[in-house]
């Protein structure tokens, strides 16, 4: 096909056995594997290029297209024995995609930089992805660690998790014998640790997903309960609106203002319960299992490390801002700092209008994200165990009942999101944040005979910190 007439064009459709990345009108395209495409013939009048100039397919190209299409039907979709060889498959810039409407359009995604994100978009995407429900427990974590210790722990954990995330990003480049451009981090774990790395990464990934789902369930129950109380209280006192006096309004404004007044005195505080904050922060800074995917879409790949560092800096500043603002503005005296709840919104009464609005928006957000988390957990678990993400309706029903049951039980008997975040964060962080990045770096350096004692000791210390972070959560 390389010697076709100049007016010939090659048309491709995917060869996959399942639908992967369906696009508009269910057009499926996976740019990572050109060899998985097969040509097919379309009438010349239906070929449309970028400039709407009618292109023609030569008889030779049409015959080749039909021949490869016939060969692809001789074997099962999973069998790649009769896939067109590399010299037959056209160059990426010559690929077209067929539309059910009768036209074929040139694939714009092959254009250099097309469909990619700028550095600014990448930074904000990482920042938004990392910020989650953990932010509600940051003030409580600072209270547990003490103000001075809490500030130091947040900054140190930000730096440590940033370095480990940097090691995750660089892990693929440490493998020179295999093309790793399409790999995700579980693929890197499987390369170094075999099936153990694959299944252990699955286990800890499920811990983070299921832990997040349980936290979401507890918070949704909390937000729905307080929202109901607000609505009930509002309806109950409607008949008193005309009886409200100027003095009552003045008193209400005074109390509202006093809540946000800074404390009358401040003493730097250090407590030895800071591991509770490190457990929360491990999940708060956790993005290691999907950072490679996010950075793949960065238009300037040479800026990945810079953009990642800026995003982590913004996340750290956000946690510091929320933690310091709530902790410092808490009215102490008359109340004690120990009154700060694990979800700091619980410190506001159900009748507070601003907290009511915040709960409504958070409830809506969690109701939309919760099914997505459940889908990801189901796909990972059932896909690895049964080889099918939908083996039967019975298996899916059992999985959903397990997740809902765990959420209901935790909401009824252990409604403290701080503890759930601590345990799930320390558990999943043990593998994805501390052990895997450091161990993979040590192994790769050893294979290249570049491992030195300082590097070995430093990364072994990171692994020990991860183990200690998990173990100490059970004694807090």
Automatic annotation (TrEMBL):
Nuclease is among the record's keywords: no
Coiled coil: none
Catalytic activity: L-asparagine(out) = L-asparagine(in); L-leucine(in) = L-leucine(out); L-tyrosine(in) = L-tyrosine(out); L-glutamine(out) = L-glutamine(in)
Annotated keywords: Amino-acid transport, Disulfide bond, Endosome, Glycoprotein, Lysosome, Membrane, Metal-binding, Sodium, Transmembrane, Transmembrane helix, Transport
Transmembrane segments: 120-140, 146-166, 199-219, 231-253, 274-295, 310-332, 353-373, 393-414, 426-444, 456-475
A molecular function (GO) term: L-amino acid transmembrane transporter activity
First-listed, main subcellular location of the protein, grouped into a coarse class: membrane
Subcellular location: Late endosome membrane; Lysosome membrane
Stored InterPro entries: AA_transpt_TM (IPR013057)
One Pfam family of this chain: Aa_trans
Membrane topology classification: Multi-pass membrane protein
Superkingdom classification of source: Eukaryota
Name of this protein: Neutral amino acid transporter 9
Organism expressing this protein natively: Bos indicus x Bos taurus (Hybrid cattle)
Lineage summary: Eukaryota, Metazoa, Chordata, Craniata, Vertebrata
């Amino acid at each position: 096909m390389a010697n076709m007439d100049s007016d010939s064009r090659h048309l491709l459709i995917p060869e996959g056995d399942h639908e992967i990345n369906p696009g508009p009108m269910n057009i499926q395209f996976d740019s990572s594997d050109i060899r998985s495409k097969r040509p097919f013939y379309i009438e010349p009048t239906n070929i449309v290029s970028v400039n709407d100039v009618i292109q023609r397919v030569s008889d030779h190209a049409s015959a080749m297209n039909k021949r490869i299409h016939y060969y692809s039907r001789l074997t099962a979709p999973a069998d790649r024995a009769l896939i067109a060889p590399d010299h037959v498959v056209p160059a990426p810039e010559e690929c077209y995609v067929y539309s059910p409407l009768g036209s074929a359009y040139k694939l714009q995604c092959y254009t250099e930089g097309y469909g990619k994100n700028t550095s600014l978009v990448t930074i904000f995407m990482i920042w938004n992805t990392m910020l989650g429900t953990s932010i509600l427990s940051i003030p409580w974590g600072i209270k547990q660690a003490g103000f001075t210790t809490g500030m130091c722990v947040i900054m140190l954990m930000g730096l440590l998790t940033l370095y480990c995330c940097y090691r995750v990003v660089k892990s693929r480049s440490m493998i020179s014998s295999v093309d790793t451009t399409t790999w995700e981090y579980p693929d890197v774990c499987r390369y170094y640790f075999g099936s153990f790395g694959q299944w252990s990464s699955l286990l800890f990934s499920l811990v983070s997903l299921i832990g997040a789902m349980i936290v979401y369930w507890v918070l949704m129950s909390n937000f729905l309960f307080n929202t109901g109380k607000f609505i009930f209280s509002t309806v109950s006192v409607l008949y008193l609106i005309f009886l409200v006096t100027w003095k009552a309004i003045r008193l209400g404004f005074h109390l509202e203002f006093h809540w946000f007044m800074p404390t009358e005195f401040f003493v730097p505080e250090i407590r030895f319960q800071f591991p509770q904050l490190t457990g929360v922060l491990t999940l708060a800074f956790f993005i290691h299992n999907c950072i490679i995917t996010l950075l793949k879409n960065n238009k300037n790949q040479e800026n990945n490390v810079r953009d990642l560092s800026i995003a982590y800096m913004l996340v750290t500043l956000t946690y510091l801002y929320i933690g310091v603002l709530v902790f410092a503005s808490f009215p102490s005296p008359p109340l004690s700092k120990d009154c700060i709840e694990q979800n700091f919104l619980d410190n506001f009464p159900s009748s507070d209008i601003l907290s009511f609005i915040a709960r409504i928006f958070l409830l809506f957000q969690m109701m939309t994200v919760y099914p997505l988390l459940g889908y990801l957990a189901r796909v990972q678990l059932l896909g690895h165990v049964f080889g099918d993400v939908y083996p039967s309706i019975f298996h899916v029903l059992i999985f959903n009942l397990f997740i809902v049951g765990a959420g209901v039980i935790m909401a009824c008997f252990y409604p403290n999101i701080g503890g759930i975040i601590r345990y799930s964060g320390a558990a999943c962080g043990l593998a994805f944040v501390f052990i895997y990045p450091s161990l993979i770096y040590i192994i790769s350096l050893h294979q290249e005979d570049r491992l030195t004692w300082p590097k070995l000791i430093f990364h072994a210390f990171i692994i020990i910190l991860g183990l200690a972070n998990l173990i100490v959560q059970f004694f807090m």
